[in-house]
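In this supplementary section we document a worked example of the pipeline. Step one takes a protein sequence of length 185 as its only input; no multiple sequence alignment statistics are reported here. Step two produces a three-dimensional model, which step three serialises into structure tokens for compact storage. The input and output of this example are shown verbatim.
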Amino acid sequence: MADSDFPGWHGTTIIGVRKGGEVVVAGDGQVSLGQTVIKGSARKVRRLSPGGYDVVAGFAGSTADAFTLLERLEKKLEATPGQLQRASVELAKDWRTDKYLQKLEAMLIVTDGRELYIITGAGDVLEPEHDVAAIGSGGNYALAAARAMMDSDKDAETVARDAMAIAAEICVYTNGRLTVEKIGG
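The serialised model returned by step three reads:
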């Protein structure tokens, strides 16, 4: 099969919600190849603890590429304990300038319970507006739903879960089997 015929991997929605002194990162479990669901229970949200500091990361994109980036992030965090922003910027710099890393196709949402960032291969380390970050095929749906709920009485976890449920109803590459990690508070 030629590369141009390969239908590509799809199926990730990751959301980060900061509210009430805590941050929740939630991700669905679906991985699709073309029109086929390959796996419905993938775990795309991870807790890292380099140097004794907890960090939660969620990834969208190629799984192998994402694991490579998570390993690199963990090394950066070990070198700069407790400094998520600095580690994220260093990772983004490497990702943008290293010829091997430039080919990686993934995005990350990372948080230490205070800071919340989206890291991209274009060298971006973005702190989202309105305390909501979302990536992946259903990311825009989850983002819109969460932003609409931020002024409600719902806590961060409920906002994240409800936003993911809405995304799963709209995006065919998103399911409702969630992995949820909470930090802070």
